Amino acid sequence: MKKYLPWIIGLVFVLWIAGRMIPPRPGPGFDFARFSQLPVLVDGRVMPMDSLARVSLSIIRGRQTYETADGKPAPAIRWLAETLMVPEHADGLRVFHVENPEVLDLFGWSDRKEKDKFFSFTELAPFRGEIQKQSELAEQTEAEVRNTFQREIIKLKNAMLLYLRLKNSIQVEGSPDFGREVEVFEQLIQPGMQAIQDRDAGREFNAPDFENLLLFTKRYQNVVQAKYAYAFPNSASGKPDEQWQPLGEALLGAISTGQISYPVRAYSQMASAYRKGDETAFNRVVGQYSQYLKQTIPRELTRPRVEVLFNQSAPFLQAMVLYVLGFLFAALSWLVWPKTLGKTGLILIAVAFALHTLGLATRMYLQGRPPVTNLYSSAIFIGWAAVLVCLVLERIYRNGIGSVCASTIGFVTLLIAYNLQLDGDTLEMLRAVLDTNVWLATHVVCITLGMSGTFLAGLLGIVYVLRGLFTTAFSEEVGKSLGRMIYGVVCFATLFSLVGTILGGIWADQSWGRFWGWDPKENAALGIVLWNAIILHARWGGYARERGVALLAVFGNVVASLSWFGVNMLGVGLHSYGFMDQAFGVLMGFIASQLAIIGLGLVPTRYWRGIKAREKPGAAASLPIPPTSPPATAVPRA
Description:
The protein is mainly alpha-helical. The chain has four domains: 42-167, no CATH class; 178-302, no CATH class; 314-429; 451-613, no CATH class. The chain has 25 helices and nine strands. The strands form four sheets. Strands 2-1-7 form a three-stranded antiparallel β-sheet. Helix 17 (338-367) runs parallel beside helix 19 (401-420), helix 18 (375-397) packs across helix 20 (437-470) and helix 20 (437-470) packs across helix 23 (546-566). The longest helix is centred in the last third of the chain and has 37 residues, at 476-512. The N and C termini lie far apart (76 Å).
């Protein structure tokens, strides 16, 4: 029974995770499940309504859920439906995140409760003018030197602008019955166009028809400026950049054809049915529109549907849970039941890695790109590569160290990615400088592999210091095994970081006309290569042994973190497209922690519990006593 216990425990947790990944069955009411699959073009890529809801709410609220008026948590797709179809209700939802004291003082809200950091559009609307004024002043300051107030006021202005654009994405804001309005507009097109032709020809024309069409035209021209989500497919257009239309263009385009397109009519009927609370009519129109899309643009539906399943199953989140469980079992195996708990932890980590791989592969399919395209995806890939190497090390050494490192780095990198996704769409279209598959598949991937190896070597160095300093389970064999593992991983990191840097120079020569320009990102990549080379030369030359190599590897975490995040905080150079500043405090804290660990590692080894434990009690008494007189073979002194 003990032999199968790890598999039984692993199966229980796997079934629990599988249950979390299965999408809930749609219940009675509005068919949000089918509505969430409807495709829409945003920022150059076709995404489902579900992703539009999650991305938009993350930007505005910093989360992918919100609280209804009665305080109950609700999914993002329901908030989007309210925003798109009943905006006056959405205006009262407290979804705007405002926490900065200076921003609150600007509104006279300094006396608001400390926990009260979410506000509604209705509350913020009276201050739109002041928000716009302050954000314009803040934008005159260079991004890298803006203070916290300036960054937060710009963020709030952009969130409110996004919200206003969403409200005019599938219906014109302020329409009490948009379905009826569209019908009236369609009936007025022909008479109105006839009145215009008569007027232009100098003939008597019908003034009411002319005025009515002019009124609708002005109303819809205002909506053109608020375009964000292109929700209306335009299959009649042969131009690639006109395959999707925003609301204003779709409505004004009906004037030339004389009739409203079916997508516009369908969305207008959805909006009217939702506003009236008519679940049957809403679900019927959503079903009919879905069938229409299957017949007209079937190729555009596959990826959005996969993306909805990807969003709902959240494989990276489930992998994080399994990594934590795997870490607990692997760490406990060093104390009790090493074989049973160690194998259980390894099984859970292997399943987490499988989910990690599934999520990574799904993202590659959705983007049609190699694994690393932005900062978010780099965190996903760095963690994946490091976990893979850790599992190989565990297969070789079977000492639990590979399992602990795999679970730790897997969880930490996915946690970093989870926080990075709150900034916007993680599947965004690539910037022009990155939009080259051959270099994404070579230079960027190699650099990322080198960085993952550097972090893994640093983590092994941390294990060396903490296990040797604070535990008694640090035998000579464990120390040598850790030393060999660090050395092998550093060799791996040096190879890939060096090849990636050289390939980056070739890319730069083709893209910017020079192989090397001392750009901050280039310097940071070179820094990783040089530091790993220093570690290898220190070991080969005998300047550093096991402990010294471990401490050098820990400092490699500082070098790699500055390359990964620090350069993006400078906001200068040809790689400044990845500018970010909100993680500065976290980065400084991480660097301080690594320096603290190095300081602990410099404590003399006579104080290390692991090394002291090697000396058995009474060992000094068993040592051979040196002779008091020279042996017979010794040459007597003169």
